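Dear H.,

Thanks for agreeing to be a second pair of eyes. The structure we're designing against is below in token form, covering all 232 positions.
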């Protein structure tokens, strides 16, 4: 793996230095001052195509062939399950609510290669940061069943930090609209905050706290979606 990574870095450096010799007139796809926004489309085998707005990326060329990139990925879920006192759906009702609030931010630099009027391959590197907050709250529910006068609440935060290299390409299907894919390889570290739990059993309140863990990994990163972008 180390030999492969070293070879990629050497090749990337050689290509990047070679870009300075490309004539200015051949850099129309990635010239200074260009800006683009993109999301993702997710094709499936049923013939449908879905646009997923879970991640939005912006790109700004601060010089020919070189671009800053910014990625933001919000994710929110709020789900409530109801449990009735009786199996026929009658009687008192208890609820179990799950809430997830997640934000991911990525910053990076792209180095665009070649002089094609349609294809724009690139190499780059960047940093990413993610924050996850997960909460569970039960009212008159225990173990997935109605249980009177029992309340439960838990919450935990998780943090992610990553440093990665990526390679991809844009294919311009129209003058300013492109499709693209991207692969990455990076180091990722995550830290779990303490898990905090409060139980209230008929007025008897107990608070507990469990220490979180941490982990690190070095792995490839691939998103199965196809990037869809517009250049301004």
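And this is the sequence the design step returned. I haven't edited it by hand at all.
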């Amino acid at each position: 793996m180390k030999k492969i990574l070293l070879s990629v870095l050497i090749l990337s450096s050689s290509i990047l230095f070679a870009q300075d010799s490309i004539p200015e007139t051949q850099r129309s796809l990635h010239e200074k001052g260009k800006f683009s926004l993109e999301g993702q489309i997710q094709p499936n085998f049923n013939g449908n195509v879905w646009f997923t707005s879970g991640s939005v990326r912006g790109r700004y060329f601060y010089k020919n062939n070189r671009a800053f990139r910014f990625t933001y990925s919000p994710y929110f879920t709020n789900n409530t399950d109801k449990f009735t006192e009786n199996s026929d759906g009658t009687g008192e009702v208890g609820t179990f609510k799950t809430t997830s609030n997640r934000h991911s931010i990525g910053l990076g630099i792209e180095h665009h290669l070649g002089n094609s009027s349609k294809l724009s391959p690139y190499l780059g590197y960047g940093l990413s940061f993610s924050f996850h907050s997960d909460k569970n709250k039960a009212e008159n529910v225990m173990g997935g069943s109605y249980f009177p006068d029992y309340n439960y609440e838990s919450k935990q935060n998780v943090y992610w930090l990553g440093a990665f290299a990526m390679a991809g390409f844009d294919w311009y299907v129209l003058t300013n609209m492109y499709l693209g894919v991207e692969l990455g390889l990076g180091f990722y570290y995550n830290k779990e905050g303490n898990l905090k739990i409060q139980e209230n059993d008929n007025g008897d309140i107990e608070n507990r706290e469990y220490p979180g863990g941490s982990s690190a990994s070095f792995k490839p990163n691939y998103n199965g979606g196809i990037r869809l972008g517009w250049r301004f």
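Two observations from my side: DSSP finds one helix and eleven strands in the chain. Helices lie at 2-18.

Warmly,
E.
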